[in-house]
Design brief:
Distance between the termini of chain A: 33 Å
Number of domains of chain B: 1
Structural class of chain B: alpha+beta
Helix content of chain A: 25-40%
Distance between the termini of chain B: 15 Å
Low-confidence stretches of chain A: 1-21, 125-161
Radius of gyration of chain B: 13 Å
Radius of gyration of chain A: 20 Å
Largest sheet of chain A: 5 strands, antiparallel
Strand order of the largest sheet of chain A: 5-4-3-2-6
Strand order of the largest sheet of chain B: 2-1-5-4-3
CATH superfamily of chain B: Dynein light chain 2a, cytoplasmic
Shape of chain A: elongated
Oligomer: heterodimer
Helix content of chain B: 25-40%
Order of helices and strands of chain B: HEEHEEEH
Structural class of chain A: alpha+beta
Mean pLDDT of chain A: 74
CATH class of chain B: Alpha Beta
Number of strands of chain A: 12
Mean pLDDT of chain B: 90
Number of helices of chain A: 8
Number of helices of chain B: 3
CATH architecture of chain B: 2-Layer Sandwich
Low-confidence stretches of chain B: none
Strand content of chain A: 15-25%
Amino acid sequence: MAAIDLPDEHAFDFESELPSAGFAVRLPSAQLADLIQINCLNRVRGAFRVCSGGEQGHLFFAAGQLVHADFGAAMGLDAVVVMLGLRGGSIEPCERPWPALSSIDMGADALLLTAAQRLDDERRPEAGRDLTTKVVRIAPQDRHGAPSEAARASEVPSFSLPPSEQLSRLAVAQVGLDGSIRKLKSGAAVDLADTAFYCQNVADLIGDALTLGPCQAIAFESEDQGIVIFRGRNIVGVRGRTADLEFVRAKVGLR
Amino acid sequence: MNSEPLSALRRVAGVLGCFVCGPQGQLLLLDMPGEIEIEALERTSARLMNLLQTASETLPSCDSMRLRFGAAELVATRLRSGLLCVLTDAALDRALLLVATQTLARRLAAAGG
């Protein structure tokens, strides 16, 4: 388990933008996955209680991520998988001591995809594991209630690996906006961090010169390898095979 | 500055303009929207060459790059001697741009560029 890494300034920023406590909502048809996505998207900080069939669990959100989950004896991703598999229950905000440790260390999209994959595998134990990824999502319907063309297309099995597995094969360097190296993961070297920092800043100068504004993302490509650089709270450089980087490129708007 | 060789790129949906720069970033061909000043483009060319050179030290044989600025994207492809840069928007026909770029690169190579 990783210690929670939540810079105080982000919690402060969020709270300062919330002048009122807001509403507690109970919706009969609400989906847990939707709640997770919405809370992450809105950078909600708070705890939610999930109750179903006499059991209960909790979700803790902060800084745009689900940082901890528990349900019965399950914790972290295991708890999320259990909760996503529930057929009904209630979800409501609650007051609860903040956990000392984070049990989840991935963004909402990667978390939900990984959990959906796990849930899918658990429901079909006889099928075993293969390289086919089934992405579980709400299928948009046309006016007659039939799945739309896009939804039908998304039902075609993809042979790409799940993002979580792709991510594990990518070298990642995180550099502070001041140039200090924050993290080097999966074999990332200092030169990737230096390249990310330098290129991000030069790209911003290019954006200024062309009156396009700051650069949101950069992709360098060779025949089968690439580097993607983008700015979040830090400047991030990701290096790997072109196919593995597809997920990252999509996330930063470089399709 | 000559823009005729670049006219095929202008016919690709989503292409706002393009230019070709030499190995030191000097502008060679230009077909960009008029509101962008030449001085800004010259600085941009030099910086793009610099970016590609920097990336090549970490990613050998790096031959193209894309920079996203909101809905706009700057796509740069290495030529035999220089760089072809294309400014695009969200309506870009990426497949057609790839074909048009390859064709132009061959044409420039044949002309000694």
